[in-house]
Amino acid sequence: MAESSTSARERIVAGAADMISRRGLNATSIRETAKHARAPLGSTYHYFPEGKQQLVTEAVRYTGEWTARSLRKELQAGPEAGLQAFLALWRKIVVDSDFRAGCPVLAVSIEEPAAGQTSAVLAAAAEVFTTWEGLLADSLCEHGAEPERAAHLATLIVAAVEGTVAMCRAKRSTEPLDHTAEQLRALILAAVED
Fold it and tell me: What string of DSSP letters covers 2-50?
């Protein structure tokens, strides 16, 4: 019973993240999320008694941790491998969705939330971005980059990739990812070689 409850809850959170990545924050409703996750509407309210804000906050954290797990694994081989994995992850999402999906963390960060729904969701998005930046900066430092430069470059990487994903969706092309990858790779190599 507990196992099926956990999987149903996780399906709802993953479904919310997917819907936000495709439709945005305000177009994602509890009702549509339940249908998308193939879960009873009542179970959605059971798992998320605080409503949409709680569900969206958990969807942002879910996306953040899912991405961070991949980054942690790939960064073991160095910052260049981490960058390639980060870009490959988002490339797969935009291509597999036929350029309909992007990053739900970015979506909640840029869309005007409904009244009373800002603090927890935006705080979760800020935490996710900070985690990704920290993972990248730590890897850059471990491979020889000066700490301040590593921190700045990590911010640039996250910002560039997030912006590039949006550009890919608009242009319906992965070319922006290719251009961004080339430039960020050069910056990483320069930072760890200096």
Answer: HHHHHHHHHHHHHHHHHHHHHH-STT--HHHHHHHTT--HHHHHHH-TT
How many whole angstroms separate alpha carbon 105 and alpha carbon 2?
29
Long-range contacts of 116-124 (CB under 8 A, 24+ apart): 116/53, 117/52, 117/53, 117/56, 120/53, 120/54, 120/57, 121/25, 121/53, 121/56, 121/57, 121/60, 124/57, 124/60, 124/61, 124/64
Which tens digits make up the pLDDT trace of 20-57? 999 998 888 888 998 888 888 888 888 999 989 999 99
* Single-letter code of the amino acid located at 78: G
